[in-house]
Amino acid sequence: MSATENDNRTQQLEAIVECSLATARKHQPAPKTKTRVAVCMSGGVDSSATAYLLQQEGYDVVGITGWLIKSGSRCCDTGMIDAARVCEQLEVEHHAVDLRELFRTQIIDNFAESYRRARTPLPCSMCNTVIKWGALLNYADKHLDADYIATGHYARVDRSTGIARLARSKDDRKDQSYVLWGLTMQQLSKTLLPLGDYTKDRIREIAEEANLITAKRKESQDLCFIPIGTTTQEYLGRFLEERPGPLIHVETGELLGTHQGTHNFTIGQRRGIGVAHFEPLYVTSIDPDMCIVYVGPKSALLRSDLTASEVNWLIPDPPAEPFEALAKIRYNSPVDKAMVYPLPGARVRVEFSNPQPAITSGQVLGLYDLTDTYVLGGGWID
């Protein structure tokens, strides 16, 4: 996209946001005759289907989209416009909210700072807490008089006991409960997650049956703020200076080579280390202060315990005594049995029944009940 085209797109998006703000300032929502739900819409098939399904269930649906990236992006230009077009199809309001500065300071800046400190961040989880269930939920409360907020996440809110509990999706392949650990119980009580009862294939079918314009839109697996064709390391190079240092074998202490910056590495990484060796090498630990990257065999990645901070509990009474649970250390890892020891200051120590590979600081510890159904809580791995 040329600079002129980019400027024109930015002006178009600014006009969309200003129109939404003007509507919110000048007009109170229509008197409620039905339960109103604000659906966070990205312009993808999942959030579009969420709005459609809730409308079919009889809710008063309002679409809401955050503009997150300065000068637009693959998510925030076509995505915002597609979200508005789906709302037009469904004949419901659509509101766009300018959250670019908040997204920059809380998500993008934090992303680079985490790598500078040798932590591998999970920005999508942070975005859920800060953007969707933070700024957008506040907007829905203040301007839309919404009773609930809804998203296209594949997870469930179980209210069968009278208390909202975060549960796994019925589609194990798509379950996203892990990245929702940061919601408070109050936020969860105001949340609807209709896709948790469906498979992804069925959602595609529903979107096509409803003729939603996003029905065939491809699913993005990349971070929304990293430009297409740019690697994470290339992107970080815009923010972090090169600080060369040694590559050291964690078991022998041998100097194997040098690197151009610890931000180019993450725990468990195998490719791109840049040294030849008689056995496969993995990044086992990183010392950002001394600019040292330690590497070693796969066996050196195994750890049996961790600590986590800023722990959030999704149960009525946070535990004070040790208890057994199922825990996972990254989005795609399986759960494993562990003993959880609550610590002062919203921290926990976790001891796994079996050693875990590549426990990585900055990622999320997810805690589930022993039936592997409900999220008990989570925290940031130290």
Would you write up a description of this structure?
This protein has about 375 residues and is α/β, with parallel strands linked by helices. The chain has 3 domains: about 5-210, 3-Layer(aba) Sandwich (Rossmann fold); about 240-295, Adenine nucleotide alpha hydrolases-like domains (SH3 type barrels, Roll); about 300-380, Beta Barrel (Elongation Factor Tu (Ef-tu), domain 3), CATH 2.40.30.10. Helix content is about 30%, strand content about 25%. The protein has 8 helices and 17 strands. The protein has helices at about 5-25, 45-55, 80-90, 100-115, 125-145, 185-190, 200-210, 230-235, and strands at about 35-40, 60-65, 95-100, 150, 155-160, 165-170, 190, 245-250, 255-260, 280-285, 290-295, 300-315, 325-330, 335-345, 345-355, 365-370, 375-380. The strands form 4 sheets. Strands 12-15-14-13-16-17 form a 6-stranded antiparallel β-barrel. A 5-stranded parallel β-sheet has the order 3-2-1-4-7, sandwiched between helices. A hairpin with a 6-residue loop joins strand 16 and strand 17. It is globular. The protein starts with a helix and ends with a strand. The mean pLDDT is about 90.
